[in-house]
Design goal:
The chain contains 31 helices and 23 strands. It is of the alpha/beta class and 776 residues long. The radius of gyration is 28 Å and the shape is globular. It has four domains: 6-185, 3-Layer(aba) Sandwich (Rossmann fold); 194-429, Orthogonal Bundle (N-(1-d-carboxylethyl)-l-norvaline Dehydrogenase, domain 2); 449-592 and 638-676, 2-enoyl-CoA Hydratase, Chain A, domain 1 (Alpha-Beta Complex), CATH 3.90.226.10; 693-770, no CATH class.
C-alpha cells in the first residue's frame, strides 16, 4: 500500500504537530477535532491549532507554505473525508472508552485497507482493539511519536498479532523515508522502550539528588555531558518538558507495570515537587521550575535555582566537582569510580538504569540496537544503555553490581565480560540475545560515513579534514576540526582533493556526521593574527578561501554538498559554490559574518547577490536583488530548515532535500553519480551590472532610520554600510560590466578594511568568549 494522503484525529499539541510534520513531508493531511459547544466556527479547534503552530518557536512547520497542506475540519461534518486517507493517526485523550468509541466511527468511514494508528504511550494495543472487528485490528497499530514530532526522531511502532505486515511495512517505510524518523519496532509492553527506561532514569536521578544532598546544578553537571545526556541534565530536562507531567507519567507506569518491577521499588512522592506544581512552578511553561529567570532591582535578569532542601531560590552557582573534571580526561569509568559525591551519585543513577535496561530484554525489544536507538533518538542520549555498558566494561559492571548486592541481569551475565558491540573485519556487530554476535545490517538506501571509516583508511588526511572513498568513483570530503570550523588545513585538503578527483574519480561529496556541517570560518585564527598584526596572513587566508571555493564551483566534475545542522558563514559559502546540494531537512544555512563585524569574504556576497539577480520572480532591475541580499546578510538571517533555505535562494530548486539524516549520504552520492553522467562545468558569470554609489546611498538611508529607531547600534551601521558598498558593486555604474572576480576582490578589500577596526576585534573576542554577538 502507498501512503499519499493522511488524517490526524485530535488537534491538541501532539496531534496538530504530527499533522504539521506530515505536511512538512509534502503530504496532504486532514486535521479533525470535536465541535466546541456553542461555537460559531465548527472547525475552531483544528483551525486554531494550525494558526498557533505558525507562531510557535521552535516551529512545527519547516516552512509556512507547508501549513497550506493541512485541511482543518471537525468530527461531525467531515468524517466522510476520512475515506480519502491512506493513514489515519488518532491522538485524542488517553481514555480507553473515548478511543474505542472513535475507532467504531473510523471503521465505518475509512476506506478498506487504510492504516489506522494510535499515538498512545500508556494504553496497550490489545486493550485498544478489544471488541472491535477483525478488519479493524488487521489495519491497526501504535505509532508513538515523541514531542515535538518535527525534531524528535524516534517513532516507536507496535504491531499486534492481527496487524497485517503490509500495513506495518507501509507506515514504517513512510515514517523512515518521508518523515525522517528513526523507526524502532517495540513490543506491547508498558511505556514501550524509551519511556520504560527513561521514566526510571528520571525518577532515579531526581530521588538520588534529593537523598544525597546534591544541588540541581551538581546533579545536572554529573548526569549531563559526562554521560552523553544533553546539557539540560535531568532537572533542566524536567523544566523543559513540564514538571507537572511527572505525576501523570508515574501514575500510568504504576498502573501498568508488573509486580517486582524496579520502578515500583524506587518510586516515591516528593513533597517539594508537589508544592512546586501546586504553586505553578511547572518549568519553562510556568513561573519557573528547578531553574528560573528572575529580575534584579536594576532590571537585569539573573538565573536562579531552587534549593532541594528548603525550596528557596538563589542565584545559580556553577558546580565544581572533581568527578566531573575527572570524566573529561578519563571518561565514564573515571566518573563513576571517583569517591566524591558526584561520582557516588553517578554510580547510583547509572548502575541501576543500566541494570534495568539489561533486565528488560527480550521483554520490550528483540535486540540491544533497538533499545540503544530508542534512547538516543527519544531522549537525545549520545549513547544508548548498552553503549554505556561497553564504556564501563560489561564484566566490571557485573562485578560492581554484585558487590553492591544487586542482581546481575541474565543478559549481562551472558555477556561474560564481552562487549555488546564490536568491530570485526570492518563490520559492526552486536551481541544477540542467544549469546552470539550478529552483524548490524543497514536498510537499503542508508549509507553512513562511520561505516565507511570503520572498513577503510582515508585517501588523504590532515588535522582538520579527511577524504574517503565511497565507491563507484565517488569520494567524500569530511571536516573534523573543532565545530567543523573552516581553516587553512581544510582549504589545503580541498585543493589536493580537487586534483585527485580530476585524475582518478567521478565526483566529490562534501559531508560529515558531526552535529553541525560547519559553524563557519575559524575566527580565532583571525583574532590571533590581528592581535599580532599579521595582516598579510589574514589577507592570504581570505584570498585562498576565495580561490578554493571558485575552483570547487568550476570543477570539471560534480561537487555535491550534503549538509545537516548548522551551515554558517564559510560553511554556507562552500555550499553556495557546490555544483549541487543534497541537504538534510534540518539544515540551518546563513551568512552570519556581520555578528563578528565582518562581511562574507569567501564569495558569499557574490553568490547570494547573483542568485537574486537571476531570480525570475523578482521585479526588474538590480535594486530589489541588492535590497534582498542586503537584508539577508545584514541581519544575519539563518534559514530554519532546508525548505526555508530554498525560499531564501541559499538552495536552488534543483537541490535535493532528504528527510532522514541516515539517508543523506546515500542520496548525495546518487545525485553526484547522476550528475557525473553528462556533467559540464558551469559557465562563469561574465556580465553583472550594479548601480554603485546610488544603491549604497539608498541602503544608507534605511540604515539611518534603523539607528534612529534604536534597532541598529552605531557599529551595526558601520558594518552594514561596508556591506552595502560590496552589494552595490563599489565605485561602479549601471553601465559598467563587472565579473565575478570584481565582486570577490571587493569582498576581500572590504573584509580587510573591517578586520582592522577595533569594533570588529571586540565583536570577534566577545563571540569567542561568550558564543553570543556583541551589540557595540
Amino acid at each position: 500500500m502507498r501512503i499519499e494522503r493522511a488524517a490526524v484525529i485530535g488537534a491538541g499539541v501532539m496531534g496538530s504537530a504530527i499533522a504539521a510534520h506530515m505536511a512538512n513531508a509534502g503530504l496532504p493531511v486532514l486535521l479533525l477535532d470535536i465541535v466546541p459547544p456553542g461555537a460559531n466556527n465548527r472547525n475552531a479547534l483544528a483551525e486554531g491549532a494550525v494558526q498557533r503552530m505558525l507562531k510557535t518557536d521552535p516551529a512545527p512547520f519547516m516552512t509556512k507554505a507547508a501549513a497550506r497542506l493541512v485541511t482543518a475540519g471537525n468530527l461531525e461534518d467531515d468524517l466522510a473525508k476520512l475515506g480519502d486517507a491512506d493513514w489515519i493517526v488518532e491522538a485524542v485523550v488517553e481514555k480507553l472508552e473515548v478511543k474505542q468509541a472513535l475507532y467504531a466511527k473510523l471503521e465505518r468511514a475509512r476506506k478498506k485497507g487504510s492504516a489506522v494508528s494510535s499515538n498512545t504511550s500508556t494504553i496497550p494495543l490489545k486493550k485498544l482493539t478489544e471488541g472491535l472487528p477483525p478488519s479493524f485490528a488487521a489495519d491497526f497499530l501504535i505509532t508513538h511519536f515523541f514531542n515535538p514530532p518535527r525534531y524528535m526522531r524516534l517513532l516507536e511502532i507496535v504491531a499486534g498479532p492481527s496487524t497485517r505486515p503490509e500495513a506495518t511495512a507501509a507506515v514504517r517505510d513512510f515514517a523512515d523515508i518521508r518523515l525522517g524518523k528513526g523507526v524502532v519496532l517495540a513490543k506491547d509492553t508498558p511505556g514501550f522502550i524509551a519511556n520504560r527506561i527513561g521514566t526510571l532514569w528520571l525518577q532515579l536521578a531526581v530521588d538520588a539528588a534529593f537523598e544525597m544532598g546534591l544541588t540541581v546544578e551538581e546533579a545536572d553537571a554529573v548526569v549531563g555531558r559526562p554521560m552523553g545526556v544533553p546539557k539540560t541534565g535531568v532537572f533542566g530536562l524536567m523544566d523543559l518538558v513540564g514538571i507537572d507531567l511527572m505525576p501523570h507519567v508515574a501514575a500510568s507506569m504504576l498502573a501498568a507495570l508488573p509486580e517486582g518491577d524496579m520502578y515500583r521499588a524506587i518510586f516515591r512522592r516528593i513533597p517539594l515537587i508537589e508544592k512546586m506544581i501546586a504553586d505553578g512552578y511547572t518549568g519553562r511553561k510556568g513561573k519557573g521550575g528547578f531553574y528560573r529567570l528572575a529580575r534584579k532591582a536594576d532590571g537585569e535578569r539573573v538565573k536562579e535555582s531552587i534549593d532541594l532542601k528548603s525550596g528557596a531560590y538563589a542565584p545559580s552557582v556553577k558546580p565544581r566537582l572533581e568527578s566531573v573534571a575527572a570524566a573529561r580526561k578519563g571518561g565514564l569509568k573515571a566518573l563513576v569510580e571517583h569517591p566524591d559525591k558526584g561520582g557516588r551519585y553517578a554510580w547510583r543513577v547509572l548502575s541501576r538504569t543500566l541494570a534495568y535496561a539489561a533486565s528488560l530484554l527480550p521483554e520490550i525489544a528483540d535486540s540491544i540496537p533497538a533499545v540503544d536507538e530508542a534512547m538516543r533518538l527519544g531522549y537525545a542520549w549520545r549513547y544508548g544503555p548498552f553503549e554505556l555498558i561497553d564504556q564501563l566494561e560489561s564484566g566490571n559492571l557485573a562485578a560492581k553490581l554484585k558487590a553492591d548486592g544487586m542482581a546481575v541481569p541474565p543478559l549481562l551475565a551472558r555477556a561474560a565480560g564481552r562487549p555488546f558491540y564490536r568491530a570485526d573485519s570492518g563490520k559492526l556487530e552486536y551481541l544477540a540475545l542467544d549469546g552470539n554476535y550478529a552483524e548490524i545490517v543497514r536498510p537499503p538506501g542508508v549509507l553512513l560515513l562511520a561505516d565507511v571509516k570503520r572498513r577503510s583508511a582515508p585517501l588523504m588526511k590532515n588535522a582538520s579534514a579527511s577524504l574517503w572513498d565511497l565507491g563507484d568513483g565517488v569520494v567524500c570530503l569530511e571536516f573534523h576540526s573543532k565545530m567543523n570550523a573552516m581553516d587553512p588545513d581544510i582549504l589545503e585538503l580541498i585543493a589536493r582533493t580537487l586534483k585527485l578527483v580530476k585524475e582518478k574519480y567521478k565526483a566529490l561529496v562534501i559531508h560529515n556526521e558531526g552535529d553541525n556541517f560547519s559553524v563557519g570560518a575559524n575566527v580565532g585564527l583571525v583574532l590571533f593574527a590581528a592581535n599580532v598584526g599579521l595582516w598579510p596572513l589574514i589577507e592570504e587566508m581570505v584570498g585562498k578561501g576565495q580561490a578554493t571555493y571558485k575552483a570547487l564551483k568550476y570543477a570539471p566534475f560534480p561537487v555535491v554538498g550534503a549538509p545537516s545542522g548548522m551551515a554558517l558563514g564559510g560553511g554556507c559559502e562552500i555550499l553556495l559554490h557546490a555544483s549541487a546540494v543534497q541537504a538534510h531537512a534540518e539544515t540551518y544555512m546563513g551568512l552570519v559574518e556581520v555578528g563578528v563585524g565582518l562581511v562574507p569574504g569567501w564569495g558569499g556576497c557574490k553568490e547570494v547577490l547573483t542568485r537574486w539577480l537571476a531570480n525570475r520572480k523578482r521585479p526588474q532591475g538590480p535594486m530589489p536583488a541588492i535590497a534582498k541580499a542586503f537584508e539577508m546578510i545584514g541581519t544575519a538571517q539563518v534559514a530554519k530548515s532546508a525548505f526555508e533555505a530554498r525560499e531564501m535562494l541559499l538552495l536552488r530548486e534543483s537541490d535535493g532535500i532528504t528527510m532522514n539524516r541516515e539517508r543523506l549520504l546515500a542520496d548525495a552520492k546518487a545525485k553526484a553519480l547522476a550528475l557525473a553522467k553528462d556533467f559540464k562545468p558551469r559557465e562563469p558569470l561574465k556580465e553583472i551590472r550594479l548601480p554603485g554609489p546610488t544603491a549604497k546611498a539608498a541602503l544608507g538611508l534605511a540604515l539611518n532610520d534603523l539607528e534612529r529607531q534604536g534597532k541598529a547600534t552605531p557599529y551595526d551601521v558601520e558594518v552594514a554600510t561596508a556591506l552595502a558598498g560590496v552589494l552595490a558593486g563599489g565605485e561602479t555604474d549601471i553601465t559598467d560590466v563587472l565579473g565575478e572576480d570584481d565582486l570577490t576582490k571587493l569582498e576581500r578589500s572590504t573584509f580587510m578594511s573591517l578586520v582592522r577596526r577595533e569594533g570588529t576585534l571586540k565583536r570577534i573576542e566577545h563571540m569567542l568568549e561568550t558564543g553570543k554577538p556583541l551589540r557595540n
